[in-house]
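Why NAD-binding protein? Reviewers of the renewal asked for a concrete example.
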Amino acid sequence: MRSYLYVISKIYIPLILFAGSILSGVVGYVVIENYSWLDALYMTSITVSTVGFTEVHPLSSTGRVFTIFLILFNISIFTYFITVVSRFVFDGEFIQSYKAFKMKEAINEIKDHVIVCGFGRNGREAASVLYRNKIPFVVIEMNADKFENADFPLTHRMMADATKDEILLEAGIDRARSLICAMPNDADNVFVVLTARDLNKKITIISRASDYTSVRKLKIAGANNVIMPDTIGGAHMAMLTLMPDVKEFIDLLSTQMSDNFQIAELIVDKNVSLVELDAWRTTGATVLGVKTTAGDYILNPAPTAQLHSGDRLILMGALEQIRNVNKKIGVL
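Here is what the prediction returned.
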């Protein structure tokens, strides 16, 4: 039903003109020829439709002149209506509008998703990783041509300006888990981060930066993490010269996740030691590290390490193994 209303909204002008013509015809015949309302409506209907049935009553000269103008006016409306509808359908506007409407409906239904602002090199790679790991996401990009370069399906996308509040709201910023700012302009990223933080205080925001001076501004604006692709790229190349197999293996771990292998972080809900948890023996999952509530990282923690409520446990294993550890630390 809503899709029909959406289509009607595109052709409301000729519809309003047509309704006005009918009303004018009825009132004109009542006033000029003293017809009853039913007779006036009947006379208007056969005149507008150019059916050519017999007149209800013989028309006066004034009535005939009025009928001539009514016919000519409605021919003009009909021509205009056909032009609008033809352009709407055959120029592809109807299909594009309908697709945009259905896309908006689909976006309104998702939650706990990631919003990716910008679909350049960085945004496309981020969306690709999210797609491979079956994490729902919405892409916002102003340039429609960039969508054509995607080598994976974009089930939720918006061709719009991410710097506008209403666009972020349409993308479900209030229901999203994270936002990735991957636009090429640092100023735009700062603006989006600031807006997103204002709209959702709890969302995790990751932004890219091209200039070192922008890192501090993005963090002040509300970004949880700021990434400089050029810096990371240089470090990546250096690591490949030192430990090529190790680096490639780490990259594989971070991008090729499935139900058989995951790297996950779990929030600890009760105080427990790694000895008591005994994750490897009881579940098969391997503990990689711990992030304390103070923000410190403990890599390869000792078996005697103590976990406290609020700490984050980083581990790897199959999806079912991670779920079993999740149950043991008190988070359901």
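Residues 43 and 56 are 7 Å apart (CA to CA). This is the kind of structural detail the renewal will allow us to pursue systematically.
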